[in-house]
Amino acid sequence: MKIKNKYAVLTGIATALIVIILIREIFQAGTAYFLGAEEISFKISGLEFFCSFTITENQSTLSYILIFISPILFIFIALEIGIRVLQKTVLGFYRYAAIVFQLLLIGFLIINIFYGAVTVVLKMEGNDWNRLVYYLDLSYEGGIIFMFLVIIIFAAYLNLSIKRVIGYINA
Q1: Where are the domains of the chain?
Q2: Which of 57, 63, 76, 96 has its CA 20 to 30 Å from the CA of residue 137?
Q3: Tens digit of pLDDT for each residue in 17-37?
Q4: Helix (H) or strand (E) segment spanning residue 141
């Protein structure tokens, strides 16, 4: 691998980590703030940076859904921005960095969605997916069906995204 490609890979990894660890949590905090959540704060635990907030009882179901899936929506937005960057760049540093960025975000989405499904099935606490199922007041079976539908929607989007990224890898 050429030296410039190593720097492109490192740039893609660093950018993806900043988006995954930092910016998506800030986006969730902003979404929670605009939708009326209270006591918004940020915490650092080991390598994890996360926001915590209190949801008021008078919020709508749509507010709950938007707040809890906003980090995933932000990753989808970042993926689409990455695709636009791939469309605008020629083969070289920026394209390599954008491809690595895309692949890491896709990997994060896979882990997050399936980890969320496992936490809902096992009724583990401390996960946005589990909190969403709780706030939606879904039964155990309803939570499993909800996560199954999320996985189906995610798989369709993932298939589309991977095909687009592969088109730029082969170019």
Answers
A1: 3-169
A2: 76
A3: 999 999 999 999 999 999 888
A4: helix 140-169
